[in-house]
Structure formats: C-alpha cells, structure tokens
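step: validate -> pass
step: tokenize input -> pass
step: predict -> running
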Amino acid sequence: MRILFLSNFFPPARPGGYTQWCHEVAEHLQKRGHTIGVLTSRHEQAKALPDEQNIYRLLHLEGDLIYYRPLHFFTKWKKQHRENLAFLEQIVKDFAPDLLFVWGMWALSRALPALAEQLLPGRVVYYLSDYWPSTQNMHTTYWEAPPNHWYMRFPKGALRFVASQILAHEKHPILRFENAICVSNALKRHLIVAGLPLEHARVIHGGTDVERFKEEGNEHLLDGPLRLLYAGQIAQHKGVHTAIEAIAKLVNGHGNGNVQLTIMGTGHPGYESCLRHMVAAEGLHDVVHFRAPVTREEIPVVLREHSVLIFPSIYEEPLARMTQEAMASALIVIGTTTGGTAEILRDGQNGLTFPAGDSDALAWQIQRLLLEPGLAARLAAAGRQSVLEYFNLERMVNEIETYLQAVAERNALPRLARTVQHSGR
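step: predict -> pass
step: emit ->
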C-alpha cells in the first residue's frame, strides 16, 4: 500500500508520546514493504535529517505553541490556511496514496482532513490519540477567553469583535470519520459523548517497543534512596506540582529524606518557573532536581537510573505512553488513572495509583514502597508483564496494518469496478 500520513508533528520535531507513535508505526509499516509518505508541519524543520525521503515538512501551524500571537491571526493566518490546503492537494496528487492516515491534528485546521475526505472518499483513516476532534481551534479559544491583565480589556475587546467576524465567515467542516481507530476506550467514550460519530471506531491501544527497554539493571536502586522520576511535558495539566507537594510532605512533614525526585522535560516557561519556586520555598534543592529532556535513544538509560516513575497527570490522558516505557523497564509506576491510564495501571496489581491532585495519597504510596520491601519487586515484575502481553508495539502495528488493509481492499473494489465499466464502453 501507499500510505500518506497527515500529522501536525513528526520526529525529530516535538518528539512527544503520540508523535513517536506516529513515527514508529510509519517506520514499521515501511519495513513491511509499504510505501510511506508524511505531510507534516514545518515546526522545528531545522532538526530534520537532510536525506529524509517522502517527508514533506510544509504545513503552517495555526499559531505559536506557547504564547498566542494575535497579530499573526490578522496578518498571516488566512494566507497560510489557503497554502496548507494547496499543499495537501498537491501532495495527494504527487504521492497518489491508496490511503491517507490522519494522525495528530492539534494546531492544524480541520479543513485539512475535510479536504482529504473529499479528495480520497472512503480512503481516509483516523488514528485518534488525543482530543483534537472535540476541542475548539486555538483562535476561537483565545478570542473567547478574558484577557490576562486588566489593561488589555479594552484593546482585546475591540479586536475580539473583528476576529469574531472573520471566524464567523469561515466554514466549519464536519468530518465523517468513516474509518477511525481510537487509542483507548476512554478516548472513544469521550469523543462519542462530545457528539462525534465514532460508535463504529476500533480501539487499538498504543504499544511500546519492549526490546528497547530491559528489566535488568535497576534492582540495586531499591537499596539506597528511592529514586523517583517524572518524565514528560512540563505543564499544569500534567500535575507535576502534585509530585513536588508529595515530596515536601515526605521530607518536611514526615522527616523522610530517603527519596530523590528528578523532573525531566520541557514545557511552559511560566509553569516551570512556578515549580522551581516551589522547590526553593520547601527547601528541596538537595532532593528535587530538574533535568533537560533527552533523546529517544537515551530514554532507556535514564529509566534504568531510577526505580519509580511518578505519573501525576490531572487531565484525562488518552493513553500514557510513558507509563508503558517505565513498566517495560521494570520501574514501579505510581500514577493517576485519569482517562486511558486506567486501562494500563491497576492499583496493587501492576502499579500504585492515587487520585489526581491528591499529594497526600501520592506521598503515602511512595511511603509504602519504603515500608514494604517485597511490594516493589512484585509490582515491577507485574508491570513489565502487562506491557509484554497487552501493550507492545508489534501488536499495535499488526492490528493497524490489518485495519488499513481492510479499508484499502474495501475501497479497491469500487475503483476496479469503475475501471472495468469504463474500459467496456
């Protein structure tokens, strides 16, 4: 098959969990003999390899990923929007895919997959791994929100009226989602409740390449200070502050200094600054350490340096890739079970859980590992087994390939019939 991926990001740009899944699935399908193309944004284009093949880094994102730029909306947005549609149409013409596989779409317009559905009727497949189909675009979100500062009330109010007139004249495409896969049952339920026609969608859980993660090598870490890790986006909805609050309660409240927490990642500068102030205010400089993100190749090494992954997410996670990688490395995962995480993490069976935002409960679960010597080894073994059986990458790719082949075969028959009919005239 010739498969064209459509995604907001593609590695090495913004290598988050769902971006990595997109890359790994594309890579594995290509190794199986399929011809793969990727149409993605030009975000962090300078990081791309100079010799990459069939990766078209052309699309403009709707706006800045950290701070919204109002003037960009008035001066560049409509032109870039038209260019994006033209890019998609041209690549579809040149690459001539059997299927177009829509992946991440946050910060891109829904007009893109809508156009794809017109250009390739019946041959557009969605892999839904976040909530983009049920959320507002970033322009509407910004202009409907109140200003952050009182002195911006009048200027934003005046510009809001103009922006609302522009947005009102834009078409709001309704996507058919004729062929759709959801990354978790929780995400599928959420999108159906939001009114999307996804009752027929197939659930194919994301998986991890277990060969990259070895369980041997970190048992000795349980003998010294308990080495905890948070790895991921530094953002409010990820609940990193809950982890710092829990450590403060263990160290300052209970006098337990037998823990170390590493916070690894990057994100919103304002939130990261707030976290650093929390650490300073609680006197945790010797206990909590911030670390820059590492490459995908270095992640297994970092995991082997720790014995526990803290996953304190507040929002409804579609499916948490980081928990799978930690489990595959035989780390104990202590996390919330918001969204799809409940389909991976089971309290007392293959990990430990706590309610989102509850730093007392998190502190207690960490304390349990210190007080119950046999618990850690049992949970680590069960966690790795869960990934091996249910959340491995090979299983994910097998199921996706089977689904794509069924869609391609189903749509090849009408095209063949039209060709025969045309040739018989």
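step: describe -> The first helix runs from residue 17 to 31.
step: cleanup -> pass
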